[in-house]
Design brief:
The chain has 758 residues and is mainly beta. It has four domains: 11-87, Immunoglobulins (Immunoglobulin-like, Sandwich); 94-355, Beta-galactosidase, Chain A, domain 5 (Distorted Sandwich), CATH 2.70.98.10; 375-620, Glycosidases (TIM Barrel, Alpha-Beta Barrel); 643-745, Golgi alpha-mannosidase II (Immunoglobulin-like). The strands form eight sheets. The protein has a nine-stranded antiparallel β-sheet with strand order 15-16-17-18-27-24-23-20-21, with helices on one face. The chain has an eight-stranded parallel β-sheet with strand order 34-33-32-31-30-29-28-35, with helices on one face. Strands 14-13-19-26-25-22 form a six-stranded antiparallel β-sheet, with no helix packed on it. The two termini are 17 Å apart. 49% of the residues are buried. Residues 749-758 have low confidence and may be disordered.
Length: 758
């Protein structure tokens, strides 16, 4: 905001790395205000509005802008002009320190610690596309609200400690690391926080502080430290702000024994474990009743004793909602990380703070990136594996010769690839059969070498010549694949990608979830390495069966849901369930190649999902998705920023019919694609765009697009009112249409060259 700006001036406030909010006073006799933006290269009209404010979006981070707002009377005469300059903050993480407060700000989250509250978190905020808001409850002053109870039964909250100092160890746009320590109930507690730009936070907690002996092999007074731990008990919790509980809210959790997530609980439910600290709980929520799920939270812990601890996840019985762990200090002797000769307990707890994705790298902030925006995906299974009958005699997924049912005949031909392109495909995933040995979930392991290297080179060149990207199958349980050179040898970094199956910290074999330990941190570092491999502009698709979690998806572009039973049965029950099971509150959504009925395609069209379609062995089958794909192909949708009223609280699309689902792809201020789908009975709707909020000025034409079963794309002109309203008439049930919106004439002169910002 402009410092000490007078009340009659133009005020410009940077709200996010891609957004500046403007406000100005009313002018008598003004009927319209024109907002011009100068980026140092050119100046253009970005809004004409009767409002006294404008939100300017889709800006570049770390950039300066100069704004001019002109008040115009009924004759078109400018009667007042204001000017102001403003700079957007940089993308990624920033660290600020003021007094006792330390704040880390990300693209869609902010966390603040207070040295006068024991060095604990005092504020967590998230961004839902429209505003920043508090996540943690005021009723519990801090997170994790760590309380130790001493031998006399007295509660000693960490947040009552004053004057705790933070030691910053690392500060970059991708990672911030700092530590602090305090003493409570005679126990010195050390915490080391690491915050990643993807919205994932880890806190390594150890107690009591243990000095190493001269030989650095044993702790000094280790037995005394263990005896001290025996006398205490403790609890930690995250309580959610009640403002999150009233509209769209659903949550789930993992136990340490189950291999399936327990999900889709409502705000009134709770679960307990009277022996252990359960590893992970997650929440999806949206703050508007007529919206969907816009944000995601996870609260997790790595280590627990087998007994002597407890968990409470859910409604607290007092109108609030909490995730809470408790433990008896004596039980900590039976944990994964209490070195017997060093005398201290250590664990990690953490948070994931997610927001819906907006567009590819370069159009959206890194924390909201989806490099598969508008993707049309053929998924080639390739022959491999053992059928269910044969598994009775051969438990592995790699068959011996006598169990081979379909002979491998090579990768899709150039003719197959050309036919795929004609159907609208721009991404092809090769399943595990591209390898010589496809493996069986690490038993035996896959070899990550192509059956025919020359054929792989031919396939890649043929796809790339048609602007089709390629994703190769790998498994999250086979980390050694990071050291196999197949990606670098055959694919293109910052363009192609990986499809990662079994991608969950819950299914990592010896590094998975066990009674004592949950490998949250190691798996997160693994998925960060995957992002480094494919590049900022490459793509990652996650699949995890029954065990989805943002902890395993944070660096990915999209999640492929639809395999485990609750998703099979409920993914298409309602738009809310589709968003929830598809992790649309923090990911792009690419449903599994199973749902291709008209109902499913209507859901995908209206919600902006990008489903896969099985490209079977003869590669000649025509997908029922091709109508939707041809509409998506009518504009360069992969370059677009996405607006969806069910995954953001931003309302730039208004629809008069609650059965219509709508998604807007904004390629530029001159070209947009609106897709509408009717999931209710036959009906019509009025769909209105908020033209000033979208930065649209001038006269626009609209082509209504429909596609038939013969691959034809049909277009007819329809009217859009000056206020941005389109009449969508006579939709059948599960019918979808596209509306290609293009600038016919811009107001005023063309953009002009201008001087750089001072």
């Amino acid at each position: 905001m402009i410092p000490n700006s007078p009340p009659d001036s133009l005020q410009a406030v940077p709200v996010a790395g891609d957004r500046i909010d403007l406000a100005w006073p009313a002018v008598e006799a003004a009927c319209l205000y024109r907002v011009h933006r100068n980026d140092g290269v050119s100046s253009r009209l970005v809004a004409e509005t009767a409002s006294l404010r404008h939100v300017d979006r889709e800006l570049k981070p770390a950039s300066g802008y100069r704004y001019t707002v002109k008040a115009v009377d009924s004759s078109g005469r400018c009667i007042k002009t204001w000017e102001a300059a403003c700079y957007t903050p940089d993308a990624g993480l920033s660290l600020t320190s003021e007094g006792s407060l330390l704040t880390v700000h990300g693209d869609a989250f902010e966390v603040q610690w207070d040295g006068d509250a024991g060095g604990e978190i005092v504020s967590i905020r998230q961004y839902d596309g429209d505003s920043w808001f508090r996540v943690n409850s005021d009723s519990s002053p801090t997170v994790p609200a760590f309380i130790l109870t001493d031998a006399a039964g007295k509660d000693c909250p960490v947040h009552r400690q004053r004057g705790v100092k933070f030691a910053v160890e690392k500060q970059t746009q991708d990672e911030v690391c700092f530590s602090c320590s305090t003493t409570v109930a005679g126990v010195c507690i050390e915490t080391r926080y690491t915050v990643f730009s993807e919205g994932v936070l880890f806190c390594e907690l150890s107690m009591p502080k243990s000095e190493l002996s001269a030989g650095r092999t044993q702790g000094v007074d280790s037995e005394a430290n263990r005896a001290l731990l025996d006398t205490i008990s403790g609890r930690m919790s995250l309580r959610l702000d009640r403002g999150l509980l009233g509209h769209k809210f659903a949550w789930g959790h993992y136990s340490r024994q189950s291999t399936v997530a327990s999900v889709w609980h409502d705000v009134s439910e709770h679960v307990t474990d009277d022996a252990q600290m359960m590893p992970l709980a997650m929440v999806d929520y949206g703050r508007k009743a007529d919206g969907g799920f816009t944000n995601h939270i996870e609260f997790f812990i790595e280590d627990t004793p087998r007994a002597g601890a407890s968990t409470w996840f859910g409604a607290d019985g007092e109108g609030g909602f909490k995730f809470e762990w408790s433990f008896a200090g004596k039980a900590l002797r039976d944990t994964y990380f209490l070195p017997w000769d060093m005398g201290f307990f250590r664990t990690r707890w953490g948070l994931c703070l997610g927001a819906s994705r907006k567009g590819r790298a370069g159009r959206a902030l890194p924390g909201r990136r989806n490099n598969l925006t508008g993707a049309r995906v053929f998924h080639a299974p390739l022959p491999y594996g053992v059928d269910q009958e044969a598994r009775k005699h051969w438990p592995f997924n790699v068959p011996p010769m006598n169990l081979v049912r379909t002979a491998y005949s090579g990768l899709p031909s150039d003719e197959n690839i050309e036919e795929a392109r004609k159907q609208g495909v721009n991404v092809i995933i090769l399943h595990a059969g591209w390898m010589r040995c496809a493996g069986s979930n690490a038993d035996p392991p896959a070899d990550y070498a192509p059956r025919d290297p020359a054929d792989m080179e031919r396939f890649v060149a043929s796809c790339h010549s048609r602007n089709i990207r390629i994703g190769l199958y790998m498994r999250g349980v086979e980390k050694y694949a990071l050291y196999q050179p197949y990606f670098e040898k055959y694919l293109k970094r910052d363009y192609d990608g990986l499809y990662v199956d079994w991608n969950s910290p819950y299914v990592l074999g010896h590094q998975g979830c066990m009674d004592l330990h949950f490998s949250a941190y190691s798996h997160f570092l693994f998925i960060r390495a995957l992002r480094q491999r494919v590049g900022e502009h490459g793509f990652l698709i996650a699949h995890s069966g029954a065990l989805p979690t943002m902890l395993a998806f944070a660096t990915f572009d999209a999640y492929l849901p639809g395999e485990f039973h609750i998703q099979k049965n409920r993914l298409l029950n309602t738009p809310d369930e589709a968003l929830y099971h598809g992790f649309a509150s923090c990911m792009g959504t690419n449903p599994i190649p199973r749902f291709d009925l008209p109902q499913a395609i209507a859901f995908y069209a209206g919600l902006g999902f990008c489903p896969h379609f099985w490209w079977r062995a003869d590669y000649t089958e025509k997908t029922p998705l091709r109508g939707l794909w041809r509409i998506l192909s009518s504009v360069p949708v992969e370059q677009a920023v996405v607006y969806n009223p069910r995954t953001e609280n931003l309302r730039v699309i208004h629809c008069s019919n609650r059965h219509f689902l709508v998604t807007l792809y904004k390629v530029s201020s001159e070209l947009l694609l609106l897709i509408a789908a009717n999931i209710g009975p036959p009906d019509s709707a009025v769909i209105a765009l908020d033209m000033p909020a979208l930065g649209l000025c001038g006269s626009y034409g609209v082509d209504e697009l429909t596609a038939d079963a013969a691959d034809g794309l049909h277009s007819r002109q329809v009217e859009m009112s000056p206020a941005g309203a389109i009449q969508a008439n006579a939709f059948g049930q599960y019918e979808y249409r596209g509306y290609r919106i293009h600038l016919d004439s811009a107001p005023g002169a063309n953009p002009v060259r201008s001087e750089s910002l001072a």
